[in-house]
Give the backbone structure.
Amino acid sequence: MSRVPLSVLDLATVREGHDSTDAVRGTTEIAQAADELGYARFWVAEHHNMPAVASTSPPVLIAHVAARTRRIRVGSGGVMLPNHMPFVVAEQFALLEALHPGRIDLGIGRAPGTDQATAAALRGVSPHLTVEQFPDHLAMVLALLGDERVAPERAGPLRATPAARTFPEVWMLGSSTYGAQVAAALGLPFCYAYHFAMGGDLDAAVRLYRSGFTPSPRFPEPHLMVSASALAAGSTEEARYLAGPSRVMARNLRTGRLGPIVSPEKAADADLSDLDLRVLPGTQYVGTADEVVAGLDALVERTGAAELILAGAVYDPQTRRESLATIAKAWGL
């Protein structure tokens, strides 16, 4: 059976008893495994001031990962544009593209990726870094990265690199209909963050993206990717046990009890209420390879996605690598 490409989204999670160096090493090993297994893309997120997440600077981590992989595309899932001046983002990703031509993705989001106090620390007192300016800042990034549709005067005399030969692929990310409509209006590929917005606007976002899509030189047709969290193991019971830390992590985020990701043993002993068990997202697709693939197939059928990208918070990077290998084999990569 021919299936859509699969990719990997990673947060460089920090686990109890380990540090950020261990987290980045684990992410690098996961990326190398994804590269060998045939996954299409490896994206890293942007989060700040979170004890469980070491992925605070996507461009730095992308440079490291791309240098240690062979053919997989590497990118951001995503850069939270309101935290950064657009010229800086364009320069960073133009340089990444110069280092690794044809392999760099710039996924752009509108959320802060953190709490409001941390967002204020990132942005300082600049009047130029606000969510309201997102459309203008996105247009500036596109102009600086060679989008032919944006008037050259938008960038003025600025150049992201002196002599760009190729440009990174720009994606719009979102967990609501807003991102879908922006991507449609600009003719950009769109990734819906279903892995943490299960109760959100997936169907409406997909419908608005397709119905409102304006063809662009690089994308004459809509191109949709959907994220999902997945974990496969030898048995359903083992997979549920290994997915336990993701549910505890979701509970901690919801209640403000932030901390490193806990072990499966500790997660199994966690005091989760019946309500927690019903409403916490945890990992969406958990089970054997066949069970996970069936769920992913249904998600593709529901959305018509051209690609899927797989998230998954686990305690041990080895667990993630084994899960990705299991899914890749069953998917036919």
Notes: The chain has one domain: 6-237+284-331. The two ends are 11 Å apart (CA to CA). The longest strand covers residues 224-232.
